[in-house]
Write a structure and sequence with these properties.
alpha+beta; OB fold (Dihydrolipoamide Acetyltransferase, E2P); BirA Bifunctional Protein, domain 2; 8-stranded mixed β-sheet; 14 helices; 31% helix; 22% strand; binds 4-amino-1,4-dioxobutan-2-aminium adenosine-5'-monophosphate; binds magnesium ion
């Protein structure tokens, strides 16, 4: 390439005329041997290139197919045609890489999301996936910006760990042992002393426990990294590998934690609305189109941007778990036996219950706090009633649980009692327990599922479509 190509986004936003430009990208469409719609990924908008067919031989023109990579120099001029303000009168055109139309799967027509999932290496070439991934990137930046502005320290917690932070046992084991020739101890068990780390290890399900140790030194910290769960859930809300954002703050109680969660999610949503307005406008239109085929009750009750604006402008409803159970027991679907799962104090809320509260009853994001101790993790602070813990879940319309968090148990005796009761080995987590021995203090934190937030913002109904290469049961292609 002779000259450095300029991003199409920049060319279009500068809105100049009669200047030389250089561009490179992939052909979206080629019409009448003359008009190339070029996309380079910097924006969802294509740039129209106009060539004089008589300047090229037929064999060359035949290679300008959808998906081909090209380089062009020319002059940016006012476009006489409809549909675009400017176009490029091409003076130099190079085909960098052809795309055989017989086999190239991303043709200019509507492809189903299922089909595109099988072509996950090429789906970012579509307008839809370009938009989703630019939104995802902006959202990640907003996360860091929010914490940076608010004095948080970014901590890289380990990916490989010896502990199960959630105590739920849904872990992927990490080993360097030869599975066909496992070393055994005298009593016939696998001898993990011979494994790489000299102990049993797994991929982390959460960076929380390690983040807590840093919060108890640096005050306000957060992690943002991949987490792994071997739960066999084939749902539109679960991945085996997902990204989680986990702030952890010393001297913060549950009320402060709820304030932080609300302020944080409003900030990152607001940021993306401002920075990715064009992508969001496209995603809103797509959603409207998609939902046309659905029965009325299944459609979103607000267009995408209105829904995002609504979240920004309204205070989240805050109710206790006990109040939530009351509301559910008095609800129509409960009385008409429409809920599949029981509504009983002590039982976990299922997504049908969460969605009823958020979408039907309150029509607003809802934070539920003070859950029964028995259905929540060992590290959550026990309330004086000794039945509930200072847990909180933030529930979003269309998504259900988007954040899970709590005030942490900072009292040594109660923590040890809880660990014993829940069968968590105190010796394994000696360092976590140490925090309660040395300078313990009130502290709180939460985890935001990054992909669930991308789903909420983009309006995509399946979590597999908001991460480049989704990992789920029986699938680790690419
Ligand atoms: O509620 P969870 O399990 O909480 C924790 O892991 C805590 N250690 C967080 C903390 O307090 N620091 O997970 C937090 C969030 C959920 O609310 C959900 O949004 C997301 O992570 N999440 C998943 N997202 C995609 N696929 C999965 N399998 C997920 N499991 C949880
Ligand atoms: Mg949870």
């Amino acid at each position: 390439m002779k000259k450095k190509p300029q991003p199409i986004k920049q060319i279009l936003s500068e809105n100049k005329r009669n200047i030389p430009v250089t561009v490179a990208g992939w052909v979206k469409t080629f019409r009448n041997d003359r008009f190339i719609a070029l996309n380079d990924g910097s924006t969802l908008q294509n740039l129209q290139l106009v060539i004089e067919p008589e300047n090229y031989d037929e064999a060359f023109l035949k290679k300008i197919d959808t998906g081909a990579a090209i380089y062009a120099e020319g002059e940016l001029v006012e476009s006489p045609g409809k549909g675009q303000d400017v176009e490029v009168q091409v003076t130099t055109l190079k085909i960098l890489g052809v795309a055989d139309p017989e086999t190239y799967p991303i043709q200019p027509k509507k492809h189903s999301l299922e089909f595109l999932r099988e072509k996950a290496h090429l789906r970012p070439r579509t307008t839809l996936f370009g938009a989703i991934m630019r939104v995802r990137s902006a959202l990640a930046f907003a996360v860091h910006e929010y914490f940076r502005k608010n004095g948080f320290v970014y901590v890289h917690t380990p990916i490989i760990t010896g502990s199960d932070a959630e105590g739920a046992g849904q872990m992927f084991q990490v080993t360097a042992l030869d599975l066909d020739r496992l070393p055994k101890t005298e009593n016939g068990q696998v001898d993990y002393k011979k494994d790489f780390f000299g102990k049993k290890t797994n991929l982390t399900v959460s960076g929380q426990l390690e983040a807590e140790t840093y919060a108890m030194a640096l005050g306000k910290v957060y992690t943002f990294g991949p987490t792994f769960r071997a739960e066999n859930s084939n749902t539109t809300r679960h991945l085996a590998e997902f990204w989680m954002i986990e702030p952890e703050v010393a001297f913060l109680d549950l009320d402060g934690n709820m304030d932080l969660a609300e302020d944080f999610v409003k900030y990152i949503i607001g940021y993306v609305m401002k920075e990715q307005a064009e992508d969001l406008a496209f995603l809103e239109k797509r959603l409207l189109q998609e939902e046309k085929s659905l029965p009325k009750e299944k459609r979103s009750n607000m267009p995408l941007l209105e829904k995002l604006q609504f979240v920004l402008e309204n205070r989240f409803v805050r109710i206790s778990y006990t109040e939530a159970i009351e509301i559910l027991k008095n609800s129509k679907p409960y009385k008409k036996k429409k809920f599949q799962f029981p509504v009983e104090w002590g039982a976990d809320l299922q997504s049908e219950h969460e969605r009823y509260l958020v979408e039907k009853h309150f029509k607003s994001p809802v934070i539920i706090f003070d859950y029964p101790a028995d259905i929540k993790a060992f590290y959550m602070r026990l309330n004086p009633d000794r039945k509930t813990v200072r847990a909180m879940d933030v529930l979003f319309p269309g998504i259900g649980e988007i954040i899970g968090g709590s005030q942490r148990e900072e009292r040594l005796d109660i923590l040890l009692e809880k660990m014993k009761k829940m069968g968590i080995d105190e010796k394994e987590l000696w360092w976590y327990v140490d925090l309660r021995r040395y300078g313990t203090a009130v502290h709180s934190g939460f985890g935001l599922g990054f992909e669930r937030m991308v789903q909420f913002i983009t309006g995509m109904s399946n979590i597999r479509d908001v991460i480049p290469y989704p990992r789920y049961p029986k699938n680790a292609e690419f």
